[in-house]
Write a structure and sequence with these properties.
The chain is mostly helical. The chain is built from 14 helices and no strands. The longest helix is centred in the middle third of the chain and has 32 residues, at 129-160.
């Protein structure tokens, strides 16, 4: 596969747009509760779409899986399960801490670790010193941009009175959960990065690298399905909301669209990693997080969420977006 940074960045940009807007359909759900939406979203994004893509684009797919050792399959599954737990903790953390603080901790840690861990554990010998300095500088600037963006959101939320001040003890517990979530959130990228034996085996069986990446997702996301589906099923039973599945086909379509957008984003991210070269799973992850944050933020601006925000919140938001833009340049340059 030809090393083409502009193509890789373009694919990540589209992936970020899809990932950053994948939750928008949930705003238009009328009858279903969260657990109904999340179960359908999980089945579509973690099972149906990954398998459709893998079967459609990877030749000799099941022969690829049979050629792998149990360890080569278990590692991405276990890492995917860790990410699935982080998905649940994210919702709990946002509810207890508010979006601003939770986002800063979780997305900040997830973006930094998801970029640096594959870089130093798997790709350190492949990275030239100049490229390494650019990537590390991009990570620092990215962290600053995420912090400023989250800070602006926190100011906006406090002004609107969206969250009450928790007790000191509950705040510490919620912060611990957010940190734990941030540590586990990049496990989806670890699953993809450390599951590359699957893609390499698919290549040896005659697949192009850009298509071989699709073979990794059904395995890694199978692990992520378990905690997401289990939590949804528990809430459906606890809240007695199973009966809601009998009504409103539009809610089913909206929940399914969320899954298509989310998995479509990660399918494009997997393709982009092959175009970004040897450091694709590091640089690509950082770029994906940046584009996702920028898309979600701009979606909030366009839907009127920032109309009543103070001047200081708007200035911080603008500074955060500027920092994220600079980080894009640095990370892309480090991949060249």
């Amino acid at each position: 596969m030809e090393h083409s940074v502009p193509t890789g960045v373009s694919l990540v940009l589209v992936a970020g747009l899809m990932s950053g807007t994948c939750m928008l359909p949930s705003k238009f759900v009328r009858t279903w509760k969260w657990e109904n939406v999340w179960l359908v979203f999980s089945m579509v994004s973690l099972v149906i779409i990954p398998w459709i893509l893998a079967v459609a684009f990877v030749e000799r797919l099941f022969e690829t899986y049979r050629a792998l050792s149990p360890q080569q399959l278990a590692i991405p599954i276990l890492l995917g399960a860790g990410w699935g737990i982080a998905q649940i903790l994210f919702g709990v953390s946002v509810k207890r801490l508010g979006l601003g603080i939770a986002y800063a901790i979780i997305v900040g840690l997830g973006a930094v670790l998801g970029t640096l861990v594959p870089l130093f554990v798997q790709q350190r010998t492949l990275a030239k010193e100049h490229a390494l300095r650019l990537i590390l500088s991009g990570v620092v600037v990215m962290s600053i941009g995420i912090s400023l963006t989250a800070w602006s959101g926190q100011i906006k939320e406090r002004a609107a009175g969206l969250h009450e001040n928790p007790s000191h003890r509950s705040y510490l517990a919620a912060t611990f959960l957010a940190v734990l979530c941030g540590l586990m959130a990049p496990m989806l990228n670890y699953s993809f990065a450390f599951g590359q034996d699957i893609a390499k085996t698919a290549v040896t069986l005659g697949n192009q690298p850009v298509h071989a990446a699709y073979a990794v997702w059904p395995v890694g996301l199978a692990g992520g399905l378990v905690p997401n589906a289990a939590y949804s099923l528990w809430l459906l039973t606890k809240n007695r909301t199973w009966a809601l599945f009998r009504s409103t086909p539009p809610d089913f379509l909206r929940s399914s669209l969320m899954g298509v957008l989310w998995m479509g984003a990660f399918a494009l991210y997997g393709m982009s990693a092959t175009f970004l070269g040897a450091l694709g799973t590091s640089v690509g992850w950082g770029l994906l997080q940046i584009f996702m944050i920028m898309t979600a933020t701009m979606a909030g601006v366009l839907t009127g969420e920032w109309q009543q925000a103070s001047r200081s919140a708007r200035l911080l938001l603008g500074s955060g977006i500027a920092g994220l833009t600079a980080a894009i340049v640095l990370l892309a340059a480090g991949s060249m």
